[in-house]
TrEMBL record:
Similarity remark: Belongs to the sigma-70 factor family. ECF subfamily.
Stretches assigned to the RNA polymerase sigma factor 70 region 4 type domain: 121-169
InterPro entries: RNA_pol_sigma-70-like (IPR039425), RNA_pol_sigma-70_dom (IPR014284), RNA_pol_sigma70_bacteroid (IPR014327), RNA_pol_sigma70_r2 (IPR007627), RNA_pol_sigma70_r4_t2 (IPR013249), RNA_pol_sigma_r2 (IPR013325), RNA_pol_sigma_r3/r4-like (IPR013324), WH-like_DNA-bd_sf (IPR036388)
Domain RNA polymerase sigma-70 region: 24-88
A family per Pfam: Sigma70_r4_2
TM helices/strands, residue ranges: 172-196
Organism: Dyadobacter pollutisoli
Keywords: Membrane, Sigma factor, Transcription, Transcription regulation, Transmembrane, Transmembrane helix
Single GO biological process annotation from the record: DNA-templated transcription initiation
The keyword Iron appears for this protein: no
Protein name: RNA polymerase sigma-70 factor
Length: 197
């Protein structure tokens, strides 16, 4: 939902208006929660992150009048908080297992796809850097859910060759994500889920 009077509300928030803040909160919280869920996969943690984002907005309300696009600003904050959460989770095994478990249970989401365009383009860019055959193998195994044997038969190569392609591609993907986002190697699986969900 686009607020016609968003600029006015931001000016009011700058002046400490709780009413204006509540209006923005009620307008954006639902969409923001769905966006964060695409990253952290756990309802409770997604809600906490959204609350933290809005708390940060309120605490820095004096500068809200300078924000040109509140929605863009909101999603950048949410993405940063989500990545920080994943970095923290990468060193806590119990939290890591919880996220992985929920990630496997979720079905693919179709709403608000544009919000993840930048992230998906990043993953596509990484996969675009690997050899064509490796990418073909990776997509058959990940996107189509083929077994190594099925992929080998479809491409006319050995199962061992498929395995080598997958090992190299997964390693490249994990290291790229770790380098750019600081996320633990064990979270590369979650990253790959975003591409095919």
């Amino acid at each position: 939902m686009i607020l016609i009077n968003e600029r006015t509300l931001l000016l009011e928030i700058t002046n400490g208006s709780e009413r204006a803040f509540s209006t923005l909160y009620e307008t954006y919280f639902g969409d923001l929660h769905r966006f964060v869920m695409r990253f952290v996969k756990v309802e409770e943690h997604a809600e906490d992150i959204c609350q933290e984002v809005f708390i940060k907005i309120w605490n820095s309300r004096e500068s809200m009048s300078e924000v040109q696009s509140f929605k863009a600003y909101l999603y950048v904050l949410a993405k940063n908080h989500s990545f920080n959460f994943l970095k923290h989770a990468s060193v806590e095994r119990a939290l890591q297992d919880e996220i992985l478990s929920h990630a496997l249970q979720l079905t693919s989401a179709t709403e608000e796809d544009f919000q993840n365009a930048e992230y998906l383009m990043y993953i596509e860019k990484i996969l675009g850097q690997i050899p064509d055959r490796s990418r073909e193998v990776y997509e058959l195994c990940k996107e189509n859910g083929n077994s190594y044997q099925m992929t080998a038969e479809q491409l006319g190569i050995s199962r061992n060759a498929v395995k080598k392609h997958m090992v190299r591609t997964n390693k490249f993907l994990r290291l790229s994500v770790l380098k750019d986002f600081g996320i633990s190697l064990s979270f590369a699986y979650i990253i790959s889920l975003f591409l095919y969900n």
